[in-house]
Design a protein that fits this description.
Helix content is 24%, strand content 32%. By secondary structure, it is α+β, with helices and mostly antiparallel strands. The strands form three sheets. It has an eight-stranded mixed β-sheet, with helices on both faces. A hairpin with an 8-residue loop joins strand 2 and strand 3. Helix 4 crosses helix 6 (200-212).
Length: 329
């Protein structure tokens, strides 16, 4: 049988961003890299952690032929991973070629999703097994009212959920897993973030922890969901950290790329700031971002934070300049 497969790409940097993102939910990682910006013949290899490559992406000069009938099918560990693969592909510049779902013509338990990468290669993620399908509210881009699960009942004294124009802040919950993994597996989103891709098990454990976390515990971070107010579908998350002495807090945020440009992140951050000042005694909120992260810098300015400090740092092994923003009570 096959030992490995190679695909060609004219834009190796774009291909690496795409495959880093879409393969992470399947437990497939980059196992070797030969990336030399500006040079010819660059390539990367992907496979299980600690093993050799099963899929290589190689830089080519000529257009990649679109061969009828050819596609690459990848094994997924679960139906949630199939859905996360599909969502990550669309976020990373791929095209939909078939949404996550059962394909009974291939078998009663054949659950798959199909995408086309930026070069035109056809990809599939498939899981065989009798498990429940992922919840529609976490994977369907435009769910019907009947498909959306009812939001969890708010806890006594919990300020969440909180709706503001275009965004809802709420607790993370298990049905968010596919969309959450897709965000965490998006290499472009991760570029300026402190987090990295998670396995399905890690993501499920993290969501469970955050679903029960006490808000605004001194010295602790808590992540809360950003959701679409109409569908309740997960769009991203906001991180909040109350300083150990309770006098200040830090805020961070992530929004799926398909939800950007619509004011969702601005509304969510404004709502999070409102929560922090209403529910704690902090004197100020700070946010730290890379000086190259222009969209985040613009957002922080829109919600009223001011640039107060620049500092040199090493982040993910790269020297950079960080900008510190702050807002006083």
């Amino acid at each position: 049988m096959l030992h490995h497969l190679s695909l060609g790409s004219r834009d190796i940097e774009r291909a690496v961003r795409f495959y880093d993102a879409v393969l992470a939910p399947l437990g497939i990682v980059r196992v070797w890299s030969d990336l030399r910006p500006g040079a010819r013949g660059q390539a990367v290899g992907y496979g299980p952690p600690g093993a050799g490559d099963a899929l290589a992406i190689k830089q080519v000069d000529e257009p990649v032929p679109n061969v009828p009938g050819f596609h690459v099918a990848l094994t997924a560990p679960s139906q949630a991973a199939v859905a996360a693969f599909h969502a990550a592909a669309l976020s990373a510049g791929g095209r939909d070629n078939g949404p996550p779902g059962l394909r009974h013509h291939y078998g009663a338990d054949y659950f798959a999703a199909f995408v086309i990468d930026p070069e035109g290669h056809r990809l599939e993620a498939v899981c065989r097994g009798a498990e429940p399908a992922p919840r529609p509210d976490a994977t369907d881009p435009q769910p019907s009212a009947a498909a959306v699960a009812a939001p969890a009942a708010p806890r006594a004294g919990d300020p969440l959920p909180l709706d503001r124009r275009g965004a809802r802040l709420r607790r993370l919950r298990p049905g968010d897993l596919p969309a959450f993994l897709a965000c965490r597996g998006d290499a472009e989103l991760a570029r300026f973030q402190g987090w990295s891709a998670m396995t399905e098990e890690e993501g499920a454990r993290f969501i469970a922890e955050m679903a029960d976390a006490v808000l605004f515990t001194p010295g602790e971070w808590v992540q809360i969901a950003i959701a679409d107010p109409a569908s309740d579908r997960l769009l991203g998350d906001v991180g909040l950290h109350l300083a150990a002495d309770g006098t200040s807090a830090e805020i961070g945020f992530t929004l799926a790329r398909e939800a950007q440009g619509r004011g969702v992140a601005t509304a969510a951050v404004e709502a999070a700031l409102e929560l922090l000042f209403a529910r704690t005694a902090i004197a100020r909120v700070v946010a730290v971002t890379d000086a190259r992260n222009a969209p985040s810098i613009a957002l922080l300015g829109r919600v009223g934070l001011q640039h107060v400090e620049s500092r040199e740092a090493v982040f993910k092994g790269e020297e950079c300049t960080e900008w510190v923003f702050a807002m006083a009570r």
